[in-house]
Amino acid sequence: MRQARETGFRSIRESTTNGYSRFLSESEREALFKTYRLDSIDAAWKSLYAALDLFESALIEVCESLSYGCPNRRKAIEEYIETLRTEQ
Fold first, then answer.
1. Calpha distance 31→75 (Å, rounded)
2. No. of H helices and E strands in the chain?
3. Cα separation of 14 and 33, whole Å?
4. Mean pLDDT per 10-residue run, the chain (88 residues)?
5. Spatial separation of the C-alpha atoms in residues 47 and 12, rounded to whole Å
6. How far is it, in rounded angstroms, from Cα 57 to Cα 60?
7. HSE of 21 in the Cβ direction (CA atoms, 13 Å)?
8. For residue 18, what pLDDT is reported?
């Protein structure tokens, strides 16, 4: 946090909180912050799944608001991700 103040840049948490506060609940913001964790390969994979959870949640909400049938492709996406993961 100190480096961010010295350089004039805000941390991801600071900049994200300000912009999304109006649109996301507290739990959604915390889920979003989990997608920024890239300090190890395992953390990066977990971040990808956290992003997938957020995207799926947003998809469901949008589909419901438009009275549109929500496609459920989660299993296929997870299988694809696991294929990529095993190839690394």
1. 20
2. 5, 0
3. 11
4. 48 56 80 82 89 91 93 93 88
5. 15
6. 5
7. 6
8. 58
